[in-house]
Amino acid sequence: QIDGKGRFQLPAKTREALDAASGGRTESGTSLAVLNYGDHLDGHLRLYPLLRWDETLQMIMAMDEGSDERLLNEYVYLSQNMPVESDKEGRFVLPQRFRQKLGVDEGDVLL
């Protein structure tokens, strides 16, 4: 559920899986991830663990420079994302521009 500050919290097991796939929590006890959005996701968000995001970037960089495939992937993944960090309670801020694009507001539930 989105709170008044635009934050959402992952279920504990999901956050643990995210932390494991990101190489663990930071020294300050926060989680790091990358939010991806865009028309290609049909009104959805994707939250990538950092290590998975790095794999995605490496895959894109391995594509032929200037190819249609690479240009499309650069647009989909690189131009429509934002690194995010949770607070110590595991809440992530969903940036205003993402909330506007998705049409979500305080009290709405993310699935």
Distance between the termini: 9 Å
Overall spatial form: flat
- Tally of extended strands? 5
Rg: 15 Å
Which residue ranges are poorly predicted, with pLDDT under 50 across at least 5 consecutive positions?
none
Mean pLDDT value: 86
Q: Going across the biggest sheet, name each strand in turn.
A: 3-2-4
Number of helices: 4
What class, by secondary structure content? alpha+beta
Share of β-strand residues: 15-25%
- Helical fraction equals 25-40%
Largest sheet: 3 strands, antiparallel
What is the chain-wise order of helices and strands? EHEEHHEEH
Tell me the layout of helices and strands:
Blueprint: E1 7-9, H1 12-21, E2 32-36, E3 46-49, H2 50-62, H3 68-78, E4 81-85, E5 91-93, H4 96-102
Antiparallel strand pairs: 1-5, 2-3, 2-4
Question: Could you walk me through the main structural features you see in this protein, from its secondary elements to its overall organization?
Answer:
The protein has four helices and five strands. The protein is about 35% helix and about 20% strand. It has helices at about 10-20, 50-60, 70-80, 95-100, and strands at about 5-10, 30-35, 45-50, 80-85, 90-95. With about 110 residues, the chain is an alpha+beta fold. It is flat and about 40 Å long. Helix 2 (about 50-60) packs antiparallel against helix 3 (about 70-80). The strands form two sheets. Strands 3-2-4 form a three-stranded antiparallel β-sheet. Strands 1-5 form a two-stranded antiparallel ribbon.
